[in-house]
Structure formats: structure tokens, C-alpha cells
């Protein structure tokens, strides 16, 4: 339905004009290829504009795909004999992983067949392979993983990055994270002018580590050119609040924060189930409350905001949870399709290059 | 009921033999002295073995105390004309805060009148005043703030430290945090052999920052002597899990983690209320579920695990939330009374000194 533009991409094959092609690593998740194929079928049912190239053992995949009417004619299989396991070391996968489904899935993005790859495999290996095969965008020193975190904002979640691509980040890196997060919020979540906050232990300007004070100034100075609002330092409580749409932090802190939040949510869920099974009266009330509780679960369900995204590379890679089921995979594919349709990575590349000409030249 | 020991303390006044005296800053909280006095009365009702010295404006405090029968004869007032506000800078309070209720509350610990002080005032100022007036224990380079975090453990929560006394910690500091956290878990929570975990972004030994790998070895090597079990690296999800009883981290990461957890819990609570007010059926079910929900709230209520404790000083200071109400204050006082009754700080001092003779001598 979109009007044709002057911007054409000579490398993209003709088929992507009709449908957005998503490259999917079918083998990496804890729940195996059946869950991945089921997730693809969920997405295919909802979104007629996408098609898939599935990477993995064709003998396993072909019968799984045959089960779903909506996948017929929209699902190519690219055979890969090997699988990256959760225990494989990233350095080893980079050296010897050529025959894995993960490698093959990234390869489809590198060659331009697909704009976005989706995998629920080993995060470290996926990041390492993405870095080596797709390479960093000009102007980016450290790529980042961005997640959507449930929040009190209008859109229901915030973007947080980095949550674990690397364990550190200097002031320049944090500044680039802000630019990348803003591009993501704009193209993945339709927020025209995202609010950016820099994670710290207090909101006063004099608090926190030296690199954070430096990053504060850099992020503030780029706000006007890059079209975002800088709200200054934010605290852990603001990650789920309505203070900012984009939370910028280093990968160590971000990783601890999301895992703490997930753990806390899971503890509360367990306690809620205990509370409702305590007595006959509470069990009756839980039956009556069933729909309310399901609505709650949908709002805070981590599977629905599941897509961690690798930013700062020549191509986009969406990381789904290792334990993702069909719903989780489908959410990751939906995100991949939206980013792909918005030509997100081209815009991000242009933004980072424009904001940082000096560093860009040094790459 | 305890047998007399050879260890006597010449500085402790005779009155503490009968009742444990708690020093309370009555003025610092957001809810004013009325909430603090109400919290003292709640504690006094439950625990006949405690008495109070309340610091603050005697004209305000005397009529408030007069309201509660259980506080009569158990509550001395020490007049202090000034109050530390939430906006006061710690450095300024240290220079000019002699007439504040916070200073006066810490002074009662410094002179040995009370073993533990409780305040819900400005954290930065409380930490700075505690450091300057009580001074660090021999062998401690960085004091720490420890909190109780709701968790899936038998006792219902874990100890996490540091959550913001300082923004950094080297390997030696993290090692001391482990020892201090173990003493706290043993004396404040009755865990004979606490399990200690070191917070990181992965549980593999090769992951994370250099100082964490060094701290890993130090904490492992002291486990046997200090009577704890070292479970190795833990992740953010383990803070609320059942992997460890004591979570060791630097003050920056710990502060972000607890605020992220609190924010997430608060978001879930808000969504739960929305879910139950959505339709007539869900409103009826919420009435039936009332007791179940109250039971849940009691288990995860931050007010009940409210007492952050400053560890590593010559005397113990319990920091309650600024927004604590009577229930929150009462929980902080209960913790203070237990630590005081167990002569916690003497044991902690002995433990740190025994484990680190070399560093202790350098202090």
C-alpha cells in the first residue's frame, strides 16, 4: 500500500518488494524447532506482508512447516547441519560454526537477502557472529543489545540499552547508545520525539561516575540535532516508569537490571498463585478473577516484549529468549518485520554517521 | 536468658542491661514525627525488651509520645532544634549539622548509650555523618548499605550489599562486603551458614570485569574460615531467587538493581489494580480475593523488609525509607533491636579483623 519512492536498493532481490523476508534461525531455542515454526505460523497468520527463510536441519523442518497452511509458499528452508548450543563458547563458534543454523541465518542478512535475522540461540555466540559477519556501522565503537521493558509509558514499555553486548561503555559509547535507542524507539515504536534518560544512582547532576557526567553533556548536546528530548539522569525505578522512553546504560548494569526486574516479576507471579490457592474462598475468587489475571499477564508478559535487538551493525539481528515459545518467537518476528519495513538500519546508520563525523572517520 | 560471659563492656550504661535502647531520629522522614512515634509505639507493643531515645523538637515530640500508653516510661526525648532535609548536601550537614536530630541520633551510638540508631532521613547525609562520627571499623575500607530483598528463600528475603554507600568497590571491598553480609545474615536473620553469591552478568567463571574475577577467588578462599558457602557468580534473577542468601555487589550496580526491582513491583501492583477494576465481574472477584491479595501484599510489601543497614562502622545505623509509615518504621526498629540484642557489630568487627589481618593493620 506504500507509494513507490525514489530510493531503490539494487541488492535486494525482487521478492522483497512484495513481502518482507525474515531470516530465522530455527534450531537455537530451548524448545526446539517445533516452537520456532509454530511462532512463524502465528506471525504469518497475522501479517500477510512477511515471508521466511528458515535455517536448520531440513529433514526436521520440512514436515514441521507442512503442518501449517499459512506457511505454504512463504517459507524457504536453507539446510544447516549443525546447531550452536547454549554451552558453546562464542570464540569457538566464530572459528568453527560455518555449518550452524545461526551462522546461516546471519549470512542471509549479510548478503542482503533479508534485512533482519531472528534467533533464540546462545546470546554470546549470536553477538560474536553478528559482529564478525555483519561488522560494525561506521561511527560505532560498541554495538549494543536493546530490549523493550514493561513500563508506565503510553506505549506500555521502554527501550533500554545496552543490556549485555559488552560489559563496559565509555562516554562516547553511551552517547551512541542514545542515538541508536532513539532510532529504535522511532522506527520500532512510532515515537516521534523520544525522551532519553541516562541511568545513574541519583538524579542530581553531581552524582555518579566520571564517565556518566561526561556522557550527560554529550547526550544533552546532541538532543536538538537528533530530535530527542534529554531528561537527564534517571534511576532504576524509572526503567519501568514514565520519565523516559529510552534508558541508556552500560551492558553490565543493564544486564543486571533486566534480570533483576524479570526475577522480581516472576517472584510476584509465584506469590500471586500461592495467595490464590490458599483457601477455598481464594480459589473461587481466582476462578472469577481469571480474565482479570489473564489481562494482567498479557500486559506484563515478558514474551510479548521479547525481542532484544542488536544495534550498531550492518544489518539488524533480533535475539529472542532462549526459552521463548511460539508466542515469544512471534513477538520477535513482529518486531523484526516492523524494523525491516521502516528501513530502520539505514536510518540508524545515517543518524550515527551524521552526529559523529570525527569518530566515524576513525573507524 | 543468656549466660553471662567474660566479655563486659565498660562503656555501656546500666539501663541497657534491662532493655535494649534504640536511638531514633524522629524528624527525618517524609511523613514527619507523628509517623515515627506511631512506629515506635507499634514496636513497643510487640517487644517488651526495647526502649527508645527519640531525637528532635521536644515541643512536637512530647505531645505525640503522650498519646501512646505503651511508650510511657520507655521513651526519652533528646531535644534537637534542626532537621536535615532531603535537599541538604551531605558535605554541608557534616560541617554545620550539629544541632540536627540526625546528628544527635548518631551521637547516642557513638557514646555507647545505644547500640543501634534508626533514621528515615536523607541517605547521603546519614551515611556521611555515620562515617565521620562513628568511623570505619579496622579492616574496612568502604562501608556498605545492606538491604533485605524479597526472595524465594526459606526466610523470604535475601541480603544484598552494597546498594549505594559508595559507587564503586574493588576486589578487596567486595570480599569485605561478603564477610559483613554473612555476619548480618547470621545475626539479623538467624542463618547459621549463609550462601554467598557474587553478582555478575553470567555465571561462568570467565565472564565479567577483572575485579570480579579477583573477588571471586578472594571470597572463595575465605569461605571455610568465615563459615559461609560460596555459590560463585550469580545473576540479577538470583537476587529474588533461592540460589544465595547474601548477594555481593558494588554500590552502583546494587542501587540500580533494588530501584529496578522496586519499580517493577510497583508497576505490577498498578496493573493488578487496573485488571481488577476492569469489569463488574472482575470487581466482584477482587472483593472475594481481598484476603488473598492482602496476604500477597504482606509477603512482598517493601515496608516489611524496609531496613537498610550501614555496615562496617563502629556502631550500626539502620536507614528506613524516607516515605516509611508507622509499619515501615516499626520494621526498621525490629531489625535494630535484633541486631542490638545479638551484639551484631562486635561480632562483625571480630570477623573482619580476623579475616584480614594485613589490611586491618594498614587502616
TrEMBL record, chains A, B:
It catalyses: a fatty acyl-[ACP] + phosphate = an acyl phosphate + holo-[ACP]. Its EC number is 2.3.1.274. GO terms for cellular component: cytoplasm. The keyword Lyase does not apply. One of its GO terms (biological process) is fatty acid biosynthetic process. Catalyzes the reversible formation of acyl-phosphate (acyl-PO(4)) from acyl-[acyl-carrier-protein] (acyl-ACP). This enzyme utilizes acyl-ACP as fatty acyl donor, but not acyl-CoA. NCBIfam families: plsX. Homodimer. Probably interacts with PlsY. Belongs to the PlsX family. This is Phosphate acyltransferase. It comes from Sulfitobacter noctilucicola. The gene is plsX.
Amino acid at each position: 500500500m506504500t507509494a513507490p519512492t525514489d530510493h531503490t536498493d539494487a541488492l535486494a532481490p525482487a521478492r522483497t518488494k512484495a513481502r518482507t523476508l525474515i531470516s530465522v534461525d530455527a534450531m537455537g531455542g530451548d524448545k526446539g524447532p517445533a516452537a520456532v515454526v509454530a511462532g512463524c505460523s502465528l506471525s504469518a497468520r497475522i501479517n500477510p506482508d512477511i515471508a521466511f527463510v528458515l535455517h536448520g536441519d531440513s529433514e526436521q523442518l520440512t514436515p514441521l512447516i507442512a503442518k501449517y497452511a499459512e506457511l505454504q509458499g512463504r517459507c524457504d528452508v536453507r539446510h544447516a547441519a549443525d546447531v550452536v548450543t547454549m554451552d558453546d563458547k562464542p570464540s569457538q563458534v566464530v572459528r568453527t560454526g560455518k555449518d550452524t543454523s545461526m551462522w546461516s541465518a546471519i549470512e542471509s542478512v549479510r548478503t542482503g537477502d533479508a534485512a533482519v535475522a531472528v534467533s533464540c540461540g546462545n546470546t554470546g555466540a549470536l553477538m560474536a557472529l553478528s559482529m564478525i559477519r555483519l561488522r560494525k556501522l561506521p561511527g560505532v565503537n560498541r554495538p549494543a543489545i536493546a530490549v523493550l521493558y514493561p513500563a508506565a509509558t503510553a506505549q506500555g514499555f521502554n527501550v533500554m540499552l545496552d543490556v549485555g553486548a559488552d560489559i563496559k561503555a565509555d562516554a562516547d559509547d553511551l552517547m551512541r547508545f542514545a542515538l541508536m535507542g532513539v532510532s529504535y524507539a522511532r522506527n520500532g515504536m512510532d515515537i516521534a520525539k523520544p525522551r532519553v534518560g541516562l541511568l545513574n544512582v541519583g538524579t542530581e547532576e553531581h552524582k555518579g561516575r566520571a564517565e556518566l557526567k561526561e556522557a550527560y553533556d554529550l547526550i544533552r548536546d546532541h538532543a536538538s540535532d537528533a530530535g530527542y528530548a534529554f531528561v537527564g539522569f534517571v534511576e532504576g525505578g524509572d526503567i519501568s516508569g514514565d520519565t523516559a522512553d529510552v534508558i541508556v546504560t552500560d551492558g553490565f548494569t543493564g544486564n543486571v537490571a533486566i534480570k533483576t526486574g524479570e526475577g522480581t516479576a516472576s517472584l510476584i507471579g509465584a506469590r500471586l498463585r500461592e495467595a490464590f490457592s490458599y483457601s477455598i474462598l481464594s480459589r473461587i475468587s481466582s476462578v472469577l478473577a481469571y480474565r482479570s489475571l489473564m489481562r494482567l499477564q498479557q500486559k506484563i508478559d515478558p514474551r510479548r516484549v521479547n525481542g532484544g535487538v542488536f544495534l550498531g551493525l550492518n544489518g539488524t539481528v533480533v535475539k529472542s529468549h532462549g526459552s521463548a515459545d511460539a508466542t515469544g518467537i512471534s513477538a520477535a518476528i513482529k518486531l523484526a518485520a516492523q524494523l525491516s519495513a521502516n528501513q530502520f538500519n539505514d536510518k540508524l546508520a545515517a543518524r550515527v554517521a551524521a552526529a559523529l563525523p570525527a569518530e566515524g572517520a576513525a573507524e
